[in-house]
Amino acid sequence: MKKHSIFFLIVVLLFTMCDTDDFNFDKMSDKIIWEPELVGPVGKGNFTLWDFVEQGDDNITVGDGDVIKVMHKEQDIVSVDINDLFKVSDIQTVITSSFTSEPVDVDDVSIMGNQIRLEDLATNYSGLAFLLGLNGQDQAFPNFSSTNQGGSYEFNNIDDFQNATFSTGTLTLEATNNLKVPVSFKLSMVNFLNVELFTFDFMDLDPGEKMVITKDLQDKEMFANQTLRLVEFSSPGSTSPVNINLDDAINIDLKVEDAKVSSGVIKIPEQLASTSESAYDIEISEDVKLSQLNLKSGILSVNIETEMNDMVTVRLTLPSVQLNGAVATKDIVVPTSGTNVSWDLAGAEIDLTTVSGKDYNSLPVKYELILGQGDGFFDFESNRALTANVRFRSVALAFAQGDFGNLTVDVEEDVLDLGVDFWDDIDGGFTLTNPKLNFKIRNSIGVGAELDFDVKATSSKGTEQALNGDNLSIPYPQSVSEGTVEGTIGWNKDNSDIVALVALPPSGDVTYGGVVRLNPGSQGVNTNFISETSSISADLEFDLPFEVKTQGLGITDTIEVTGSDFDKLKSAELEVKYTNGIPLGMNVNFAFIDTISKQKFDEISAGLLTAAPVDAQGIPTGSKEGSAKITLTESNVKNLIKSNGIVMKIQANSPENGTKPARLLSKSKLNVKLIMKAKADFSK
Predict the structure, then answer these.
(1) Residue 650: Cβ within 10 Å count
(2) What's the pLDDT score for residue 112?
(3) Which of 384, 369, 380 is nearest to 266 (CA)?
């Protein structure tokens, strides 16, 4: 409780609804005279409504239209970023592919100019031996035929393979008869293991004639050294002399063409030996359908196991991924022990819509086995398997686009203090007619969203009231170029029970919480986007303008007094003449009490201060003049002396007996003039 002189006590009782410590007495005239038997003006004052306000309280401010209001703010009540929508660390896709080596191309082999000379025939066949002594002479060539071996002729300059087993290809022998007589002969091709591969029958070749015989190489094994054996030879000879030249020969040319090798130790021209293409689902959560991902960072871990007999190169291509301005491709050298490599995909732009029949979440992957990138022989065998396992790790998104589905993000439950405890001192019907609870939104996420928010207020007496507000649509950018969209959403008297919540009054706990719903109630495919810096954030604002509708609003306060202040006072009368521009009518009463025994001695009415007139919106349109009196009789003074407290009661009404709202403007004025009549007994 507080102590005051009687003069200031009376002024306070008449003109304040707040603590007297907050009243600005500097607005009163400086000269106040107090004398026994004094009748006349003793002071005057000019007040605005702002003078009655707790101006040191940051929650009290002046809003649009000069209305005094309580404005309470909470920063970042709502906060949503890319990690709340989906966590790319949740990508668990393991891309596994097995593929086998297929037969490889080898260069064509062409060995020209091997010869079966007449000297070789005369040396190996006894029936022709006589020709050795006739070199350069003219002699009739004998009629000759033999099924005995007529010599071996090596093809030992094949340097394209040490050995090769063919899956396809042809072996061609071309024979040109440069002898001077017709011939027929058979050749057998054997390898160094003396295994016969083919026989070639050349029949009736006239002098100068060529003949070609082609064999299929499928499933045949050749070595670098091949031998042709002459197993049959015949000639009808000549009826007239011919010039015997021991250097005359049958020319044999060997060719291997259009060959593929299934195994062997070979030289391989650079080539694509095998291809495997697959499409894999990139799944983050069940409802997320991604069309594009841009990676801020990310690693593709690649593990390749191999059954190959030699080192190979695997070319890994992500056809729908752009990395550094080109299709993402990486050549991986794979030794026979296999390998593990990490592929840095920072900055990669991934299109997940390129697979036929898949509109989202699909990543095509292509593996190619590349052979022939080194010199020397390669130990090759087809149908040897390679297995690749690919996994994303350390992924952070720079951008994502697609349909993010019906996600929800929690708004954490919390408690806030509106800083309006003074409402607990108010009794009677009291309504703020235009309260608002707003959210200041900043949104750079391209997702349709709504705020489902719960607010519950509890009075100091334990009474509860819920906001019961509609869900609020959150503004959002329609394109990436639009950047951050700002806006205000919230609840008012038309879409919630905020009037009842504020009228509670909410001077106990105010609790809140809820969820942000993404793509609420959507049908079909949504087009959503988000970047690494995108977010939804919102500040909460309780906006409580003093637009009041009240009938019998009661304010009560108790002031401590001591009778020693009044022992010479016999009676007093204070007349207040006022001009009231404040749109509240006020009845003021005070009672003398003993706060210990709770005994009430007197109750005195100060009368009514008439409210200023207002328009349909409750805005003051003028002022009201009038007067009010407080009279202390000698009996009142005696009771005052016996009291140790005075209870002040103010009842206020908005215009038209509380049926019309009043806007309390900071500049609304109350002008007062005080006239005092006092009688004192100085014999005491």
Answers:
(1) 23
(2) 83
(3) 380
Q: What is the pLDDT of residue 4?
A: 34
* pTM passes above 0.85: no
CA angle 301, 363, 353 (to 5 degrees): 150
Burial class (CB in 10 A: 0-12, 13-18, 19+), 218: middle
Are 113 and 242 contacting, i.e. CB atoms less than 8 angstroms apart?
no
Which residues, at least 6 apart from 183, have a Cβ–Cβ distance to it below 8 Å? 177, 202, 205, 233, 234, 235, 250
Query: Which residue, among 294, 301, 394, 276, has the nearest Cα to 352 in the 3D structure?
Result: 294
Rounded CA-CA distance 678/35 in Å is: 8
Closest CA to 102 of 368, 373, 335: 368
d(CA 34, CA 27): 19
CB of 647 closer than 8 Å to CB of 556:
yes
Give the per-residue pLDDT at 248. Answer: 97
Percent helix, strand and coil across the chain, each to the nearest 5: 10, 55, 35
Q: Which two tokens stand for residue 603?
A: 């109750």
Predicted pLDDT at 43? 53
Strand 241-243 and strand 94-100: the pairing is unpaired
Quote the CA–CA distance of 57 and 301 in Å, as a whole number. 60
Ranges of the chain with pLDDT below 70: 1-45, 47, 49, 51-58, 86-93, 285, 417-430, 504-508, 523-524, 551-570, 574, 590, 606-607, 640, 648, 650, 674, 676, 678-684
Amino acid at 308: M
Q: Is the peptide bond before 103 cis (omega within 30 degrees of 0)?
A: no
CA 615 to each of CA 611, 618, 655, 660: distance values in angstroms, whole numbers, following the listed order: 13, 5, 10, 9
Shortest CA distance to 336 belongs to which of 280, 378, 373, 372? 378
Encoded amino acid at 544, one letter: L
Compute the distance between CA of residue 85 and CA of residue 616 in angstroms, rounded to an integer. 48
- DSSP tag of 425: G
**pLDDT for the residue numbered 23:** 35
Angstrom distance (rounded) from CA 461 to CA 108: 101
- Residues 565 and 563: their CA atoms lie apart, in Å, by 5
- What's residue 36's pLDDT? 47
Strand partners, 138: 243
Spatial contact of 407 and 450, defined as CB atoms under 8 Å apart: no
- Report the alpha-carbon distance of residue 164 to residue 260 in Å, rounded: 9
Closest CA to 382 of 394, 369, 363: 369
Quote the CA–CA distance of 403 and 290 in Å, as a whole number.
6
Give the pairing type, strands 183-190 and 226-235.
antiparallel
In the structure encoding, which two tokens stand for residue 166, read together? 């063919």
Please give the Cα distance from 334 to 113 (Å, whole number). Answer: 42
- The closest of 509, 422, 495 to 463, measured between CA atoms, is 509
The tokens 């003078």 sit on which residue? 51
If we measure between CA atoms, which residue out of 535, 481, 558 comes closest to residue 19?
558
Alpha carbon of 579 to those of 43, 493, 574, 610: distances in Å? 15, 33, 16, 9
